[in-house]
UniProtKB/TrEMBL annotation:
<dbReference type="Pfam" id="PF25601">
    <property type="entry name" value="AAA_lid_14"/>
</dbReference>
<dbReference type="GO" id="GO:0006355">
    <property type="term" value="P:regulation of DNA-templated transcription"/>
</dbReference>
<dbReference type="InterPro" id="IPR025943">
    <property type="entry name" value="Sigma_54_int_dom_ATP-bd_2"/>
</dbReference>
<dbReference type="InterPro" id="IPR025662">
    <property type="entry name" value="Sigma_54_int_dom_ATP-bd_1"/>
</dbReference>
<dbReference type="GO" id="GO:0043565">
    <property type="term" value="F:sequence-specific DNA binding"/>
</dbReference>
<dbReference type="InterPro" id="IPR029016">
    <property type="entry name" value="GAF-like_dom_sf"/>
</dbReference>
<keyword id="KW-0010">Activator</keyword>
<dbReference type="Pfam" id="PF00158">
    <property type="entry name" value="Sigma54_activat"/>
</dbReference>
<dbReference type="InterPro" id="IPR009057">
    <property type="entry name" value="Homeodomain-like_sf"/>
</dbReference>
<keyword id="KW-0067">ATP-binding</keyword>
<keyword id="KW-0238">DNA-binding</keyword>
<dbReference type="InterPro" id="IPR003018">
    <property type="entry name" value="GAF"/>
</dbReference>
<feature type="domain" description="Sigma-54 factor interaction">
    <location>
        <begin position="345"/>
        <end position="575"/>
    </location>
</feature>
<dbReference type="InterPro" id="IPR002197">
    <property type="entry name" value="HTH_Fis"/>
</dbReference>
<dbReference type="InterPro" id="IPR002078">
    <property type="entry name" value="Sigma_54_int"/>
</dbReference>
<dbReference type="InterPro" id="IPR058031">
    <property type="entry name" value="AAA_lid_NorR"/>
</dbReference>
<dbReference type="InterPro" id="IPR027417">
    <property type="entry name" value="P-loop_NTPase"/>
</dbReference>
């Protein structure tokens, strides 16, 4: 214990600092053998030097981007287990000027909570999300030294090898996976050095123990559940080759028949592992069961999802011989094919296909999804498809656009209210959207626009799975799957303090990122044809194709309103088309102007009517949307991806009357 602690009582802080300062200066100036420093610290100083750390170094050397950390966290079982415990602890130590940190196994910070002023101060030594606090990056410090020693340790002031950390004290304790003995990460408490005291290390140890126990409990529970299903299946089909996959698609059990089977079939797939082929197919398995063929092997695979508390935790895989082997690729009865709700999503671009595959995998589970993408990229379409492909499909899908709700009605709309809860309320009270969506899916569009106080309320509902109507004294249980969507960069809003980090983790277990249409040019013609067929049918018009120039214009245009804008353009064209082919003049006028722009370079020297064709084009575009959206400037700004003030400025510049809009040609 003595070796772990830097400080035995708060009274010795200043004297200790003086002694350590002398020792550090003696060591770094002429590498003297020094006294007054713990052996473990001295060893770490030597290691720091061997890693090339300079004593005068002010910051950790390496850092990962926040986005990468967020991506990493989504995949991490360890992080998901630790987060509720850390948040609970943090709420108790918020006022103590300590920063609570979790790192992954190499010492990179994946969680960081602390008082705003202290965090700002710590930023100077790059104690930030994504920063690497291993000894290789930051020299002796509690996190890095604990990673190295695989033991808890406190590091105080001048015990830090690099000067940038001399004003700090940190206490770190490792967390292990008890099954594999692997280090999962480090819990650390950091504070200005004058707050040093021995108890902090005990606290870090307690938090680490709690996370480790919870991680063990969950993984034991999951393993038990997986093995029970496996044993049942073995009793039922004793002679079939059988594999058990866990939730991260690793094989965790296989019977002797499967091992023998593998030896026979592996040679027929010389370039890849048979298990990897099965795993890839499982990744796209959306339902509770899927079957597919391993063509070259002549075997059929049946995979059954193993579900615990509504979450898919693994797969039981059975292998049956087919009557005769075939060559080629077949997805046969595989549920992952584009059937059911997924057919409505048109697009072959890799980005859309990846989003569809990910959506299929998570549809069967209950995990919250965050769909990101610009307006009109298909966020709601995806949310509905996930709902339709999920076991909740027979229950309601309720969509709420947070940005469209007036601030004062938001709470009552979402959570409902009791009779007489406020003036003007309905006398019988009202169900909120959570209650309406009970058993089904609640789609919270534009979640980034939710005010902070309601974010707290929402978080509580999500954690407790209960909702309290405004004015009610008791909470009602609700069973709702949340799919949230945003066109904003939530990580940035967190940094600016406009979005709660804990709510972000809750809703962003899986992210589906939908790219803007201009970044998937290959999909434009495909989607245009899809809408052409749809609207021709809907309006009973004999329109069957696009003229070549129309398609060229479509692929050259930027589509700020994405698929929605393309849909509107094709609908307009189908209604106004004179023949069976859509030409430029059938399109909305602002798009016809776009065509002029495309042609402009070929007409060099030709008289130009308007002094600035680009400005004219912009004027028409703004006027078009103002007219179409009944003068809703906010909505126009959103469609055109500009700020409201820019739209007002442009309206003034182009003389567009905000009350009566000029007709466009
Ligand atoms: N890949 C696609 N295939 C077919 N239709 C699509 C596709 N993507 C979007 N759409 C259609 O485009 C329109 C806009 O899509 P949706 O409402 O889902 O976008 P959104 O991202 O939720 O927009 P907003 O953020 O403005 O609410 C819808 O009519 C939808 O059906």
């Amino acid at each position: 214990m003595g070796e772990e602690l830097a400080i035995l009582s708060p009274q010795e802080v200043f004297e200790k600092k003086r002694v350590l300062k002398n020792a550090w200066e003696a060591y770094v100036s002429d590498h003297k053998v020094v006294t007054g420093v713990r052996g473990s610290v001295l060893e770490s100083w030597k290691r720091s030097q061997s890693f090339g750390i300079q004593p005068g170094q002010r910051q950790a050397r390496y850092a990962q981007g926040v986005d990468e950390v967020i991506e990493w966290r989504k995949e991490s079982e360890f992080f998901a287990t630790a987060i509720p415990i850390l948040e609970q602890v943090y709420s108790q130590i918020e006022e103590t000027r300590h920063i609570l940190t979790l790192t992954e196994a190499h010492g990179r910070i994946i969680y960081l909570r602390g008082n705003h002023h202290i965090l700002e101060k710590a930023e100077a030594m790059r104690f930030t999300l994504g920063a690497d606090w291993s000894e290789q990056s930051a020299g002796t410090n509690a996190i890095g030294t604990s990673v190295y020693l695989k033991k808890p340790i406190q590091i105080f002031s001048y015990e830090h090898f690099a000067q940038g950390a001399h004003d700090w004290v940190c206490s770190a304790s490792p967390v292990y996976d008890e099954h594999s003995g692997k280090l999962l990460g480090i819990v650390d408490l950091t504070a200005p050095h004058e707050y040093a005291q021995p108890h902090t290390l005990s606290m870090a140890k307690m938090i680490a123990t709690q996370i480790q126990a919870e991680y063990l409990r969950i993984s034991n529970d999951i393993r038990r559940c997986l093995h029970e299903e496996y044993v049942k299946a073995r009793n039922r089909w004793p002679h079939e080759p059988m594999l058990l996959f866990d939730g991260v698609f690793q094989v965790i059990a296989e019977n002797a028949e499967a091992q023998a089977w593998l030896r026979t079939v592996q040679p027929s797939l010389p370039d890849q592992s048979v298990y990897a082929v099965i795993r890839d197919a499982l990744l796209t398995c959306a339902g509770s069961e899927c079957t597919f063929e391993l063509l070259q092997t002549g075997y059929k695979v049946t995979a059954t999802a193993i579900v615990r508390r509504n979450e898919r935790i693994g797969f039981l895989v059975l292998l049956h011989p087919r009557s005769r082997p075939r060559l080629g690729v077949s997805r046969g009865s595989f549920e992952g094919a584009a059937t059911g709700p997924w057919v409505q999503i048109t697009g072959r671009s890799p980005a859309i296909q990846t989003a569809i595959q990910r959506a299929k995998v998570v549809a069967a589970t209950n995990v919250p999804i965050l769909i990101t993408g610009e307006s009109g990229t298909g966020k709601e379409l995806f949310a509905r498809a996930v709902h339709e492909a999920s076991p909740r499909r027979h229950h309601p899908f309720i969509a709420v656009n947070i940005a469209a709700l007036p601030r004062e009605l938001m709470a009552s709309e979402l959570f409902g209210y009791e009779p007489g809860a406020f003036t003007g309320a309905h006398p019988r009270g009202k169900k909120g959207k959570f209650e309406e969506a009970h058993g089904g899916t609640l789609f919270l569009d534009e979640i980034g626009d939710m005010p902070l106080d309601l974010q707290v309320y929402l978080l509580r509902v999500l954690q407790e799975k209960k909702v309290t109507r405004l004015g009610a004294s008791h909470a009602e249980p609700v069973d709702v799957r949340i799919i949230a969507a945003t066109h904003q960069h939530l990580a940035e809003r967190i940094v600016r303090g406009a979005f709660r980090q804990d709510l972000f983790y809750r809703i962003n277990v899986v992210e589906l990122a939908l790219p803007p249409l201009r970044e998937r040019a290959g999909d434009i013609v495909l989607i245009a044809n899809h809408f052409l067929a749809k609207f021709a049918r809907q309006y009973g018009r004999p329109v069957t194709s696009f003229a070549e120039e129309t398609l060229r214009l479509f692929t050259q245009y930027d589509w700020p309103g994405n698929v929605r804008e393309l849909q509107n353009a094709v609908e307009h064209a189908v209604i106004f088309s004179q023949t069976d082919t859509i030409t430029r003049k059938d399109l909305p006028s602002y798009l016809q102007v776009m065509d002029e722009r495309a042609k402009a370079p070929h007409h060099a020297g030709a008289p130009v009517e308007h002094p600035d064709p680009w400005a004219e084009e912009e004027r028409k575009l703004i006027a078009y949307w103002l007219e179409k959206l009944d003068g809703n400037v906010s909505e126009v700004a959103r469609r055109l991806r500009r700020s409201r003030s820019t739209i007002y400025r442009k309206m003034k510049q182009y003389g567009i009357d905000s009350v009566r809009f000029p007709l466009i040609d």
